[in-house]
Amino acid sequence: MKNQNQKFKKESGSILVLVIVFAAVFTTIGTGLVGMVSTQHKLSSQKVASRQALHIAEAGINYYRWHLAHAPDDFQDGTGGSGPYIHDYKDPEGTVIGKFSLEITAPSGCESAIKIQSTGWALSHPQTKRIIQVRYAKQALAKYAFLTNEDVWFGDDEGLKGEFHSNGGIRMDGTQNSIALSAKEDYICQGCHGCCPLPCSWNEGSGCYCPIANCKIDCPDFECQDPCHWVEDEGCECPGIWGEGHGGPDGLWQFSVPVIDFLKITQNLKTLETEAQSSGIYLGSSGLGYHIYFKNNGTFDLYQVTKKRSKVWGYNGEKWVHQSNDIQNETLILPQNRPLPPNCAPIFVADDVWVDGEVNGRVTLVAARLPDFSHNNAKIIINGDITYANSNSVLGLIGQKDILIPFYSPNDLVIEAAMLAQKGHVFRYYYPSWENPTYYIRENIHTFGSIITNTVWTFSWTDGITTTSGYRNTDMNYDSSLTFNPPPYFPTAGDYQFISWEEVE
């Protein structure tokens, strides 16, 4: 009996040890499982919270899009004070489940886009935040290779690369690689655009003479070129865009499209004057004007024009004028090698200004006499080649009236700039051959950027067959980077668009 009892005690002790061991094992496994489940739950909750935070941050961006649609010039969230601006985020039942914080950076001379940074978080996990940063901007009118308020004719020796728009009609005989837009369904084609409207007169055996630069047009018996037709007492009525160019068959001609209001795209010159006086460069009246020569080290030399070359006769698009737009003598104004204005502030010249050189940086040059009297508007004259030192450089030229290419311009001219002639035109006068047989006709002009001109534009004049004055060959190229990164203070139009979206770590 004693041996049996001892045996039973040994077996009971062994079972107890096993129970304790298994209990410890199960406890360890159970604790681990609970810990793992708890960890997975926390991770899952954090992932959900992170996704919620991203959605809430996006809601903040969308909220400010809505705000700008109703108050496009308010960059302080309606508070009149500085941010950040914190808002509740509610679920469909109206319960606050999160918040977003907004930081708004208003446009500046250097940056035309609005920067919106939105930080979102859920109330359940306030430590889990997501940040979205976007740039939101209107398209700059510098997106157009060419923009005009008037009728225009591109000859067969002219090529355009980039979108162009006219509020008038377009005769397109040249080449293009992008869309052409006209605000006209049809229009009366001008005499020196190869047509015969009044007040042209017909001379038997000679053709149609129009009072524009003594322009002779071969238009026998007042017949209009196809697809135009003659309208009694008016002239040749043509489609909004027509001509021998291939853009029509290629589907690149669109008319009629909405008018671009030039009264709204011109810049406030007084504002630019104030900006230049406070943080840029302001040059007062000098008599004949200034010459600014840009240098590839990010500086420019400034000269005062002391004498102009002899006057020549030229047709300015409205009348014959006897004037000079060329420099004879000039004096360097010290200090030499002046740096470009900081923070993209403008250079404002209260006088006429000649410009050329190699630009290194981002700058806008303005020529305007204020207060504004139409008989005394300032102009910009392209004195020679204007090029960029690198791909980050850009030059804006804003003329109160005209931006002109003078009589003694280079035979081969390169202009890299966005040009805006607010009340006049980007233009080379019609210069007759008897003024100088060498300079009345030039060979090649190449532009890279944008041409925005209020009134009639041209670099060349033709009798419908050959060039009679100006540049024989015109090559116009647009700078795609100007659409959302224009020169400082250049006008924009249309609705805001996202141009970048990124999550900030």
Task: Write structural notes for this entry.
This protein has 505 residues and is α/β, with parallel strands linked by helices. It folds into four domains: 2-140; 144-185 and 254-260, no CATH class; 186-239, no CATH class; 265-498, no CATH class. The protein contains three helices and 37 strands. It has helices at residues 2-70, 262-265, 269-279; strands at 85-90, 96-105, 114-122, 125-140, 146-148, 152-154, 158-161, 164-166, 170-172, 175-176, 180-182, 186-188, 201-203, 207-210, 215-217, 229-231, 235-239, 241-242, 253-255, 281-283, 290-295, 299-308, 312-315, 320-323, 327-339, 347-349, 353-359, 362-367, 380-388, 394-399, 403-404, 412-421, 426-427, 441-453, 460-462, 467-478, 492-504. The strands form seven sheets. Strands 5, 7, 8, 10, 11, 19, 20, 26, 28, 30, 32, 34, 35 and 36 form a 14-stranded mixed sheet that branches. Strand 1 (85-90) and strand 2 form a beta hairpin. The longest helix is centred in the N-terminal third of the chain and has 69 residues, at 2-70.
